[in-house]
Design a protein that fits this description.
The chain has 139 residues and is an all-alpha fold. It has 6 helices and no strands.
Length: 139
C-alpha cells in the first residue's frame, strides 16, 4: 500500500491522532513545570541576603554574624526543627510576638524559607544533616 492509499484509508485520523498526542505531551510538560515553579523559584542566596537585611537585627542568620537578640532562635536552630515550608512561610507572612511586619513579597518569603531550610537536614535524607555554617550562640 502506498502512502496515498494509507492516507485515503485513514483519512486525517492518523494525522490528527499524532497532533493530539503531541498536544497532550506538551500540555503535560507545561503543567508539570507550572506545578514545580514555586519550588524551583526559591533562591537560597537571595534568602541569605534578605535575612541579613531584615532578620539579622534580632536573629543570628549566618556564621559571619557577631551578635543578635538573646531570646530569639538562630536560623540554624529553626532549621534543625525540621519545619515544613508552608508553616514557616505562613509564620513569616503573619509575624507574631515582637517580630515586625516586614511586608515581604511571596517570592521573598520563599527565598528566606529556602535559606533557613538549607541550614537544616538534607531534604533527600532526613537522617543525614547538612553541615551548616558554625553560628555563634546567642547570649
Amino acid at each position: 500500500m502506498q502512502g496515498n492509499d494509507a492516507t485515503r484509508l485513514l483519512g486525517d485520523h492518523g494525522h490528527m491522532k499524532s497532533i493530539r498526542t503531541i498536544f497532550l505531551v506538551a500540555s503535560s510538560i507545561v503543567c508539570a513545570q507550572i506545578a514545580c515553579a514555586p519550588a524551583l523559584a526559591a533562591d537560597v542566596e537571595n534568602g541569605l541576603k534578605l535575612s541579613k537585611q531584615w532578620c539579622a537585627a534580632c536573629h543570628v542568620v549566618a556564621s559571619d554574624q557577631k551578635s543578635a537578640s538573646v531570646d530569639v532562635p538562630t536560623f540554624a536552630d529553626v532549621a534543625r526543627r525540621k519545619t515544613e515550608k508552608k508553616p514557616l512561610a505562613a509564620f513569616l507572612a503573619e509575624p507574631h510576638g515582637k517580630m515586625p511586619n516586614m511586608s515581604l513579597s511571596r517570592s521573598e518569603i520563599d527565598d528566606i524559607v529556602a535559606y533557613i531550610r538549607s541550614l537544616g537536614p538534607a531534604a533527600d535524607d532526613p537522617a543525614e544533616p547538612r553541615k551548616p555554617p558554625e553560628l555563634p550562640k546567642n547570649g
